[in-house]
Amino acid sequence: METVKMPPPKKIATRDAIISTALEQAVVIGLEGISLGGVAAAVGMSKSGLFAHFKSKNELQLSIIDAALNLFQMVVLAPAMKSTKGMPRLRALYRHYLDWMAGSSGLATCPFTVFIQEYDGRPGAIRDLLVKEELRWRETFSKVASEAILSEKLPNSLNPAQITFELIGAAFSYQVSHGLLAEKNARQHALSAFDRVFSKPA
After folding, report:
1. Ramachandran region of residue 68, left (φ > 0), alpha (ψ -120 to 50) or beta?
2. By the 8 A CB rule, do 178 and 191 touch?
3. Do residues 151 and 198 make contact, with C-beta atoms less than 8 angstroms apart?
4. Measured on CA atoms in the order 71, 29, 178, 191, is the torsion positive or negative?
């Protein structure tokens, strides 16, 4: 069996520092606004030193998205999936998602909101990756919603795809209301949206 040679810990730490810094910048100035020289200066290294880790801007951009995905897994998905399957898990998933939108990741805002708006009409590998991961996230939310409907024996008229559409939409609205407009009741409105989606028809 061939032995896989692992990079030295210092190189891994440097690479992680580059990606972390680049992600923080990208949330503010977008992926296109990122420059290898700017990231290198922020990390405290030369541009040529950064080239030892990333050969191109595109490679760094894809690594930024990957880092954001890992962060989303840690902050939103992992803790929510620890909840009891069914409505408790869906409610936890939604609440953690709202926390993410409010900056629980430690970033200025949701990176995917920035990236999706930036690449909405721009074809290429980055847009393809964003589409793939957004669909995966919605499929996960829809699956958890479906489990909640079954566990609570809710009406068949409740459609997991529609629930996903409405609640993710409510989370985006919450982000604007909370962050941009600083509305005091923003989170309560978002939580009320959850309850309305699952209110049984008369």
Report:
1. alpha
2. no
3. no
4. negative
How distant, in Å, are the alpha carbons of 93, 110, 121, 175 from that of 79? 8, 18, 33, 20
Cβ distance 33 to 61 under 8 Å? no
- Helix (H/G/I), strand (E/B), else coil: 129: helix
How far, in Å, CA of 110 to CA of 74, rounded?
A: 14
Of 134, 136, 159, the closest CA to residue 148 belongs to 159
Rounded CA separation 161/145 (Å): 8
Q: Mean of the pLDDT values across residues 126-154?
A: 95
pTM above 0.85, yes or no: yes
Domains, the chain, ordered by start: 61-197 (1.10.357.10)
Name residue, tokens 């009320």.
Answer: 192
pLDDT tens string 34-69 = 999 999 999 999 999 998 899 899 999 999 999 999
Q: Are 100 and 178 in contact (CB under 8 A)?
A: no
Average pLDDT taken over every residue of the chain: 92
Tokens of residue 50, six digits: 């950064």
Region 121-138: mean pLDDT is: 96
